[in-house]
Write a structure and sequence with these properties.
The protein is of the alpha/beta class. Helix content is 46%, strand content 17%. Strands 4-3-1-2-9-10 form a six-stranded parallel β-sheet. Strands 6-5-7-8 form a four-stranded parallel β-sheet. It starts with 5 loop residues before the first strand and ends in a 6-residue tail after the last strand. The protein binds D-glutamic acid (DGL). D-glutamic acid (DGL) binds at residues 10-11, 14, 40-43, 74-76, 117, 120, 148, 186-188.
Length: 262
């Protein structure tokens, strides 16, 4: 197996905007992106299931790829399993959690929305972040698994109008609740970040969109500054639909391999 400094994991294509942002800051990076699509959607699974398959995939990565750092480019995996990972492996992991702390600096009226998977929405980790950083705010948390599903299954190939059609009813809910800030707490939603920003701006009380993209990647590059001088980015999937993920790899200009092996 070739060497990669960075490994990104998500249940599907959610982590790609994070990888792309890393490549923007470190254009010569080497990265392997793993779409663990055999377990998609993580958001509909029990915490113990997410922990169990996260431990297995991390074991395989450490054995076969030996990166310098693993980025959990997935809120669901992070809130469910990061603690167990850190207790199990003496290895640097970067997690992705809903940008709850930054949202506190953005809101002016202390009415904040959070959209994520169902699993992240009800996880105690998320609740603790809300209690810690948003105790002066009213927070509306909603699981939006349909949108996750649509993004994974091709919404990224659609027109801007189609994307906005999907986003508008979601934003309308928070507009009615007079929120001025919305947190994108699932990495899949970052594929529609610009569309969320556009629709958010058009609301009666404009809604600012907050996410963890820059925070996660800046933290990654602080822990593991890019050491390579020639870019190499490869995508792989654990699932059976190899062609679908090969097409995604092509779309983003990445190489594709069918599996991770030694
Ligand atoms: N992209 C993931 C997240 O940030 C999870 C999507 C899913 O598999 O349900 O939570």
């Amino acid at each position: 197996m070739e060497k990669f400094q960075y490994v990104f994991i998500d249940s599907g294509i959610g982590g790609i905007p994070y990888l792309n942002y890393l490549l923007k800051l470190a254009p010569k990076a080497t990265a392997l992106y793993i779409a663990d699509s055999i377990h998609f959607p993580y958001g509909e699974k029990k915490q113990c299931e997410v922990i169990s398959f996260t431990l297995k995939i991390v074991e395989r990565i450490l054995e076969n790829v030996r990166p310098e750092i693993i980025i959990l480019a997935c809120n669901t995996m992070t809130v469910s399993a990061l603690k167990t990972l850190r207790n199990t492996f003496d290895f640097p992991f970067v997690g992705t959690v809903p940008a709850i702390k930054p949202a506190n600096l953005v809101t002016k009226n202390n009415r904040i929305g959070l959209i994520s998977t169902e699993r992240t929405a009800k996880d105690i980790y998320t609740q603790r972040l809300i209690d810690k950083f948003l105790n002066n705010s009213t927070v509306f948390v909603r699981g939006e698994s349909d949108l996750v599903e649509k993004i994974e299954n091709g919404l990224v190939y659609e027109t801007e109008e189609r994307k906005i059609e999907e986003i508008r009813p979601i934003i309308s809910f928070f507009e009615k609740e007079k929120c001025d800030t919305l947190i994108l707490g699932c990495t899949h939603f970052l594929h529609l970040r610009d569309s969320f920003i556009k629709v958010g701006k058009s609301c009666a009380i404009p809604i600012s969109i907050v996410d963890s993209l820059e925070g996660v990647i800046n933290h990654t590059l602080t822990l593991s500054p890019c050491k390579t001088t020639s870019k190499k980015v490869t995508l792989t999937t654990t699932g059976k639909e190899k062609q679908k993920y090969k097409d995604y790899a092509n779309r983003y200009g990445f190489d594709f391999i069918e599996d991770i092996q030694k």
